[in-house]
Design a protein that fits this description.
75 residues; alpha+beta; three-stranded antiparallel sheet; elongated
Length: 75
Amino acid sequence: MTRAAKKHRERFLVEQAAKSLGKQWVLGLDREHPDFFVMEGASQFGLEVCEVFTGPQDRAGAHMKATEAVTQRAV
């Protein structure tokens, strides 16, 4: 996945998380660390997006992550 595609996906996930939590987050410009500065009213915090994959894994990593990577490349 290209850097631009990854940042687009991360922004989508953060926007969906805010919506699910009933929050009105204003996202700053894309960054590397943390991924986003989030403003909520007078408060501001840094947010790092992480994905967790469960299930079997081997030295190459989680099998579900490998499957997700193949799916993303196909899309």
